[in-house]
Design goal:
The chain is an alpha+beta fold and 202 residues long. Helices cover 34% and strands 30% of the residues. It has a five-stranded antiparallel beta sheet with strand order 1-2-3-7-6. It has a four-stranded antiparallel beta sheet with strand order 5-4-8-9, with no helix packed on it.
Length: 202
């Protein structure tokens, strides 16, 4: 005698079969679409994470995305797709991003602390000194700007963010050349202060 199967299990199985038949996509893509998204993968490549612990608890968590030329190109394509830009609009946005890349180095930064005031970044902050290091030189930001995008927009373009982080755009003078990895000069972003120190390297 065959064991009885509860109706809810049959419905669940039928729904999964229906999805597989309609989508014709791997289960991993249905359940975790970001893992197969080229933009997600590229953003992951240019994003670094750092943590400051207090005992076993997370005191500070930082994610930072270096807006490299490679990332900017993908960002424009993603933006054009999300907002249904025309070809001319996408070309203009691409030109604007290229112009910005030629003038400055930008880093998107998302910061979390269980004490919200510790995640506040600004010039002359009593809590944090923020700077880049490259070839033994320290470079301080020209601008630290809070990024007040709606959460859905932030999540679309920076998939690692969560609602409890504070987001910023850091603008530095143009680094020449912007080359990272074994063939280039490492770029290190450092946040240092009374709470601790975190360094992220590309």
């Amino acid at each position: 005698m065959l064991p009885k199967v509860k109706p809810i299990y049959l419905l669940t199985l039928a729904w999964m079969v229906f999805l597989a038949g309609c989508k014709l996509e791997p289960a991993s893509k249905l359940l975790w679409p970001d893992l197969s998204d080229p933009y997600f993968q590229l953003t992951k490549k240019w994003t670094k994470r750092g943590v400051i612990y207090s005992g076993i608890d997370t005191e500070i968590e930082v994610y930072a995305t270096l807006k490299s030329p490679e990332w900017r190109k993908a960002y424009v394509h993603k933006w054009a797709k999300v907002y249904s830009l025309s070809q001319n609009e996408e070309k203009k946005l691409q030109a604007d991003e290229l112009k910005a890349a030629q003038k400055e180095t930008e880093i998107f930064l998302a910061m979390y602390s269980n004490k919200p005031e510790q995640a506040e970044l600004k010039f002359n902050s009593p809590l944090w000194s923020v700077f880049l290091e490259i070839e033994d030189k320290k470079i301080y930001p020209l601008e630290i700007r809070p990024l007040d995008w709606p959460y859905a927009k932030l999540k679309t373009f920076f998939p690692f963010v969560h609602k409890w982080q504070k987001s910023y755009m850091l603008r530095f003078r143009k680094l020449e050349p912007l080359q990272t990895g074994p063939s280039g000069n490492p770029i290190r972003l450092t946040l240092s202060g009374p709470v601790g120190k975190v360094s992220l390297e590309w």
